[in-house]
Amino acid sequence: MARRRLKPVTPKKVIKSALYRMWLRSRERTMVLRTYGKECLDCGAPMECVHHIKPVDMDRIIDVIREELLTTEAMPLCTQCHKEIHARLNVVEEMRE
Q1: Distances (CA, A) of 97 to 83, 85, 88, 89, 92
Q2: Are 39 and 45 in contact (CB under 8 A)?
Q3: 3-class DSSP state of 1
Q4: How would you classify residue 4: left for phi > 0, otherwise alpha for psi between -120 and 50, otherwise beta?
Q5: What is the distance between the alpha carbons of residues 29 and 17, in angstroms, rounded to a whole number?
Q6: What radius of gyration, in Å, describes the C-alpha atoms of the chain?
Q7: pLDDT tens column, 23-34
Q8: What pTM value is reported for the model?
Q9: C-beta atoms surrounding 44 within 10 Å
Q10: How large is the greatest C-alpha to C-alpha distance in the chain, in angstroms?
């Protein structure tokens, strides 16, 4: 009997949590805090969050991550072969331009 392959789907909340953890450690967030300090710019209370002036479309970001990064269209390679494939792809892209 053939084994049925299931398409893995990483839950949105897992992706969102990983993105949030990445943001907490980002250089950009650190720069915001260095620039403005750790107090609320509106009332002066201790900072509890950072507000993005340009709204973040988290659903769009998660969709892109699922479509382009979290895909089963991938193959295992050693580091050297992976570098060589990307080098060949870069040459093809340069020839198209």
Answers
A1: 21, 19, 15, 13, 9
A2: yes
A3: coil
A4: beta
A5: 16
A6: 20
A7: 889 999 999 999
A8: 0.61
A9: 9
A10: 66
